[in-house]
Design a protein that fits this description.
By secondary structure, the protein is α/β, with parallel strands linked by helices. 20% of the residues lie in helices and 18% in strands. The strands form two sheets. Strands 1-2-3 form a three-stranded parallel sheet, with helices on one face. Strands 4-5 form a two-stranded antiparallel sheet. The longest helix has 10 residues. The two termini are 25 Å apart. The mean pLDDT is 93. GO terms for molecular function: arylformamidase activity.
């Protein structure tokens, strides 16, 4: 994570990983070997950045084998919002303005969101 050199002041980061290259978001079968955060990577972001939102290009920001600890690391101390299931096919690395439009769902702890990059 350190080698990514995330600039100071960045609050939202979307990670385009091998999941996009493998086109996992376009497949109907679930793949448990997707690229995602392990607990140590999540903790590093919490401890070394001011990020408030982390997005990833598959169904979870957390690796299949480390799901609960990753979510706890993001949500426990800083409440970093996980943004999951992103289609980043045609998105090039760079700075964007991110707008997330969640559906209003009463009593839910998560909901579908339409995300727009400008």
């Amino acid at each position: 994570m350190k080698s990514l050199n995330i600039p100071k002041g960045v609050r939202r980061v979307l990670f385009k990983t091998l999941n996009t290259d493998r086109q996992l978001m376009h497949k109907t079968q679930f793949h448990s070997d997707f690229t995602a955060f392990m607990e140590d990577g999540a903790k590093w972001l919490v401890e070394n950045t001011n990020i408030k939102l982390v997005g990833l290009d598959y169904l979870s920001v957390a690796a299949y084998v480390d799901a609960a600890p990753v979510h706890y690391a993001f949500l426990r101390n800083r409440e970093i919002i996980p943004l999951e299931g992103l289609n980043l096919d045609d998105i090039q690395p760079g700075r964007y303005s991110l707008h997330c439009l969640p559906l209003k769902m009463v009593g839910a702890d998560a909901c579908p969101t339409r995300c727009i990059l400008i």
